[in-house]
Amino acid sequence: MTRATTLFRSLILAAAALCAAGLLSTSPRADEGMWTYDHPPLKQLEERYGFKPDQAWFDHLRLSSVSMGASASFVSPDGLVITNHHVTLGYVQRLSSAEHNYVRDGFYAKTQAEELPMPGASVQVVVSMEDVTDRVDAAVKAGASPAQAQEQREKAIAAIEDECPKKTGLQGEVVSLFGGSRRVIYRSKEYTDVRLVFTPELAAAFFGGDDDNFCYPRYDLDMAFVRVYENGKPAKVQHYLKVNPKGAADGDLVFTSGNPGQTERLLTYAMLEYQRDVIFPATNDRLKARRTLLKAYSARGPEQARQARTYLYYMENSIKSRDGEFKGLNDSALMKKKFDQETALREAVAKNPALAPYGKAWDNLEQAVAWAKAHEEERRYKIGLGERALLGTALTLVRYSRELAKPDADRLPEFNDADLPDLTRRLTSPGPVYKELEATLLLDEMKYVIAGLGENEPYVKTMLAGMTPEALVKQVIEGTHLEDPAVRKELLKDKGKAVATSKDPMIQLALRIEPTISETRKLFRDKVDAIDTANLTLVAKAQFAAYGESVYPDATGTLRLAFGKVAGYPFATTLVPPFTTFYGLYDRAYGFGQKGDFAIPPRTAARREQLDLSTPLNLVSTNDITGGNSGSPVVDKEGRLVGLVFDGNMQSHPNTFVYEETQARCVSVDIRGILEALRKLYDAGPLADEMLTAAK
Fold first, then answer.
1. 498-507 pLDDT, tens digit each
2. DSSP per-residue codes, 140-206
3. Which site from 162, 236, 460, 565 is most exposed, i.e. has the minimal number of CB atoms within 10 Å?
């Protein structure tokens, strides 16, 4: 029996003792949880829905689910993948031009020969998982400080990930679960030849725009199709989802399988207060200022508006999402629920001598929060500069050059040998760079840092090198050649040795500021992240002792399973229906006079009579999701595709911190709406036929 298994058994025995004493309950809490496939919610499914899937059911859904930055799934044996329009939007933007605006007009490849390669895109499917907790923990030396222990664990993880492709031919990622108390390596097959098959117009996929974003009822065709290739031919896949053309009914049990980005349900009450009082106000203000800047840039002309459209979309999406989370953090009832849960757990720990080692965790975390608050100015102004586009590329090249001069075991985690192929592909992938937009954004970032730290702060002086911010931005943007993939590829040669002596002004700027950025990051890693990791692990172990197998880990951007039912919800003095239809789409468009984001595309207006307007278009369910679940398949008990996740309603945003399902809902495109639109709006019957034929 392994040490991790022994620990797990001891925690379960402690849980039984606590429950017998009446201190805690292990009863399932609604349709809550983003469960790992190696520990699925078997007990909860049987108790709540009388459903007992076998291992083959879980394996098939896992192997049909893929990741491409967010979530997606195979829907035919010929490598056809379905995901959201907004998941592929960045790629579609890069494939577009003033002459071929696929974002505005949509795209459909009638034949495989017409499918468009998507440079930089990749699709991964999790092939296997293995618990490596004991191996990672064994690397920590007795008496190590939290920072030393963190570094030792990271080296062990790097070694495990590096050996994975050599031994298995698969990419490996060690995933930290339950605050680091459990480590699992996810082994994935990666496809790097990805081609665009279909995307609707932005006006159809994002009908209602930001006004309707994170709201329900919704009427969006937020779908897209890509195809993965191997050796120049469509990949042949054994596991794919068959579609159920009849869809789901109200009350049906449904599952989502995807890659939820991040939840923070393990955070302590003090850590949530820090988020509420410090992080969220500053970050939200910054995002809104950036949105104002992008709108002003878009007003310069139609080409500038096209250039900024995708970034502005993601900015507005982030703002609305974070506003919803912030509202939850300021909800006294929600925070009280978290406080009461934490108090009950701490009291249970205090009353049981066997759990005494966990009691110090909360005090240690409060001390880390206090340190972070005292150094907030450093985090805010010295870490985030230039972490996108050209300056972001330059900073990555500088780190690449520095880290590859070290042995693999001593590098930062993102520069391990196992991760270098993906990093290299991303750095050398072609794509449009809009220098006018780059200059606008970089100048704004510099002015933000200068306003926060002051002109006489050493970091600011180092950054400006005696120039005004306007002159510096002009110099680096006009003088850089990093927009050329060939230049970036050349700089990567010989482990990036040419970076240190490069005359490119953007590289020179990165060389000046990167040491301070890295130093500040390391300071926070040692003083905050390492403390958080060590002590959240203790909190997670205490939760194991309290709740046993009913506990699930926070979302980590890796593959998870969630269950729920199709269900409307009460709102104000009325009820919200579980489904919307094409009737509602036209009603909402005409109700707003076909103006702005409520204007339907010309083809949708012209083909109204061809549609069955009673066809369900969107649906809601109680599945527990978060950002990153976009593109997740929604399947029924038979594992058949009935929908495609594309959003959560506003009421779901506080679920990042504390789960509540009275009104929180997962919002999906109904498979019936997808098939109806493909056939009757887009003349893409062959695409619908490919899925339906595969379902037979």
1. 999 999 999 9
2. SPTT--HHHHHHHHHHHHHHHHHHHHHHHSSEEEEEEEGGGTEEEEEEEEEE-EEEEEEE--HHHHT
3. 236
